[in-house]
Amino acid sequence: MNRPNPVPANANTIALGQKLYVSNCMICHGQTGRGDGPGAAALEKKPADLGARIKAGETDGELFWKITEGRSPMLSWKGSLTETQRWEIVDYIKTLAGK
Ligand code: HEC
């Protein structure tokens, strides 16, 4: 679960992760990761504030694990995003911790 990130964050991986986040995640998690996307209102459980979780010490490996396996009511992303894409998203969402 606590795997080190094999896709180190740099301008390129963060930009790729941002694109993936905008097209797959923003609907629920919101533009700045606060869990206030337009799709969140219909869910029985609100998405967490990702930036706050990261500030609280959530590691890359934990984020990757939750994205991979899903977190009810969020589905698993294993089948729709490659492993590299999931790490790129981790690189991007870590930039949300400062917002
Ligand atoms: C259908 C709405 C929805 C979509 C789309 C969605 N999520 Fe989620 N996500 C949730 C909900 C609801 C939870 C569970 C509550 C929680 O733990 O935040 C969650 C949980 C998470 C968590 C765990 C938070 C934590 O620290 O425990 C991460 C990380 C996450 N989502 C990232 C993503 C990423 C990355 C994407 C895009 C690939 C994505 N989500 C797409 C709704 C969604």
Mean pLDDT: 94
Number of helices: 5
Return the CATH architecture: Orthogonal Bundle
- How far is it from the N-terminal to the C-terminal residue, by CA? 26 Å
Q: Which fold name is given in CATH as the topology?
A: Cytochrome Bc1 Complex, Chain D, domain 2
How many beta-strand elements? Answer: 0
Name of the level-1 CATH class = Mainly Alpha
What is the approximate shape? globular
Sheet-strand content, in percent, reads: under 5%
Give the ordered list of helices and strands.
Answer: HHHHH
Low-confidence stretches: none
Rg, Cα atoms, Å: 12 Å
Give the proportion of residues in helices: 40-55%
What is the structural class? mainly alpha
What is the CATH superfamily?
Cytochrome c-like domain
Bound molecules: heme C
Largest sheet: none
Number of domains: 1
Task: Describe, in plain words, how this protein is organized in 3D.
The protein contains 5 helices and no strands. The protein is an all-alpha fold and 99 residues long. The protein has a single domain (11-98), classed as Orthogonal Bundle (Cytochrome Bc1 Complex, Chain D, domain 2). The longest helix has 14 residues, at 11-24. The structure holds heme C. Residues 24-25, 27-29, 39, 43, 45, 47-48, 50, 53, 58, 63, 66-67, 71, 73-74, 77, 89 line the site of heme C.
